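input
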Amino acid sequence: MLGTILELGAQDHMSELARQSENKTLLLFSQVYRGMSVLSRQPIEKLYQVVLDYVKIDSSLTPEEIVASVTLFFTELFPLAYHHSADISDKDFARDYKECLRKSIEIISPFGDIPKQVAQSLSKSLEATRLLLQAFRIGSEVLNTTDSLLIEENGSSNSECHGALVKMTYCPKCSGGHKHAKPCSGYCLNVLRGCLSKYVAELDLPWNGYVEGIESLLSAVKRGGNEAGVNADAVIRNLDTKISAAIMHYMEKGKDIDIRKEPVNRKQQLKGNKLEGRSYATPNKGIKDDPSSENKTF
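output
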């Protein structure tokens, strides 16, 4: 029962954390990167949905799928960031040109190493969290199985232990009453030693090892700045900051990114449809090269 409570509690905590982080990220785009706010919503929601699915009980997702989801998110973000910084007024890129940008992201590397860092930290921390949830489940199953075996083997077929266990159930001391309660002071321990000693001896070493393992894993998951990089709380809480850092990296390094070699004619990059609810600053050339732009609302 306790293992199940811990498992569900940890899962609910991670789910709530992911939802809060998603809201922070959406708010970031609506306030700071308004030009990308509308079209970035779907990629953001898709990324966080994978995070939510990963920490669900019985999830079949793999760490590799987390990495792929993060990679896809930044791939979808690149055309938006480039469009946002280009001198194209309120018109969108042509579909073929967007696809060209997506395919060239590994060569251009517009966001630096940030996508790779996010993918690695998120996959490692979520996997550690899922291992913790699975460990809680295993512990719960072991306790339930052990409890059933004890009841069966010390039931009516073993009248002496059965009677002692029944008496122990009604003992004020054993049920959490006053520690000096009589006539059963010390009775609980005597019953456990007499009826359960062989089971305790067999389970003591492996169970203590299990508890120590849980404590170590829990400590690693909760500890900030750990070398293992498995602090899921910190990784998810800072996800919006990492995404913003990636965009700022692009804004700062945009003028050094050479995409003019792409076999796409500039005149064919745009299509005539205006984008509802979106407005763009009009820099002098394709990429913003005003170093003060990082202090502005984009």
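quick obs: The longest strand covers residues 270-274.
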